[in-house]
Amino acid sequence: MAHPRRFRFGIQMATAPTGERWAELARRCEDLGFDSLVLPDHFGDQLAPIAAMTAAAAATTTLKVGCLVFDNDYRHPVTLAKELATIDLISDGRLEIGLGAGWMLSDYEQAGLPYDAGRIRVDRFHEGLHVIKGLLGPEPLTFHGEHYTIENLDGFPKPVQSPPPILVGGGLKRMLTIAGAEADIVGINPTMPNGAADADAARTATAALTDQKLSWVKDAAGDRYEDIEINLLSLGCFITEDRDSLIEQFAPMFGLSAGELLDFPHALIGTTGEIVETLLARRERWDASYIIVQADALDAMAPIVAELAGT
After folding, report:
1. How many CB atoms lie within 10 A of CB 8?
2. Which CATH class is domain 8-237+288-308?
3. Alpha-carbon gap, residue 221 to 118, rounded angstroms
4. Are 290 and 184 in contact (CB under 8 A)?
5. Rg of the Cα trace of the chain?
6. Residue 113 DSSP SS3
7. Coil, strand, or helix at residue 4?
8. What pLDDT shows up at residue 253?
9. Stretch 92-102: mean pLDDT, rounded?
10. Would you list the domain boundaries of the chain?
11. Where are the alpha helices (DSSP H) in 64-117?
12. Residue 101 DSSP code
């Protein structure tokens, strides 16, 4: 009997040298059994996510496309909702919507955007979430908030999915509470106290702290928890016959002990068989069945995807 939370796998890719190569990568992800292709949303060395999502969807037939995640501060939710509905329509319902409040300080500095306090960014994101959900729904939206005012706007086009699934991730209680209450997919993430993915961020994502984060999601979700998909993003995948030595080598770089890195929810280390057992254990502990890995893990993860996807 299949597990009630069946595994599926996504891959996060950022760039390709040509349009033809991007299409080839998308088709390879699909052929290897990955369920989704997602892009980040930053201003550095990556393709623009909306255009790249559209191109990936056009090059494939079953692959879902998404962004992990759109930064609410970069895009007005009315504009973003229209783009997302269009992608869902032209992909025949293969859109996943990832939304967030923004975290990478360097993006804001380079683009000249104000990096407001976390409370303000989350307030604005929460309003944006309501606007996007409303515009993707069947009725015209009127919304009066502190940051957005929408007057009787009927979103067009309407998406094929009713509505497309929304992923919200976070590492602090408020974001995970919003996610648990309102998202279809919840990403349990590190916290970024310095606005960067650094060792301080890694120390906010130990196994013990992930237990706490999941409890916030469960408390907020209540009866709907069983319908929520739990997502973990893997920041690194290392296939090795000597897991212990590799962990001893890398643990100090993350400010973690060897034991903490072994159990670290956002890394996959070991033989193919050991990683399979790791993922099964993480699903048992955290209900994590939607696993997203980085582009450089495409081939390494292929046999793992083949063994676990759909089980």
Report:
1. 20
2. alpha beta
3. 22
4. no
5. 19
6. coil
7. coil
8. 80
9. 97
10. 8-237+288-308
11. 77-90, 105-111
12. -
Q: Which of the 8 DSSP states describes residue 159? A: P
> Quick one: which of 141, 135, 128, 143 has its CA closest to 164?
135
CB neighbour burial string for 25-45, b if at least 16 within 10 angstroms, e if fewer: bbebbbebbbbbbbbbbbeee
The Cβ-side half-sphere exposure at 53, using a 13 Å CA radius, reads 31
Q: Tell me, what amino acid is at 207? A: A
Q: Confirm if 310 and 1 have CB atoms less than 8 A apart.
A: no
Q: Give pLDDT tens digits for 240-274.
A: 999 999 999 888 888 889 888 899 999 999 999 99
Strands annotated E in the chain:
8-12, 36-39, 64-67, 70-71, 95-100, 141-144, 149-153, 166-170, 185-188, 229-233, 236-239, 267-270, 288-294
Residues 6+ apart with CB under 8 A from 26: 37, 55, 56, 59, 60, 63
The residue whose two tokens read 């081939």 is: 299
Average pLDDT over residues 40-44: 95
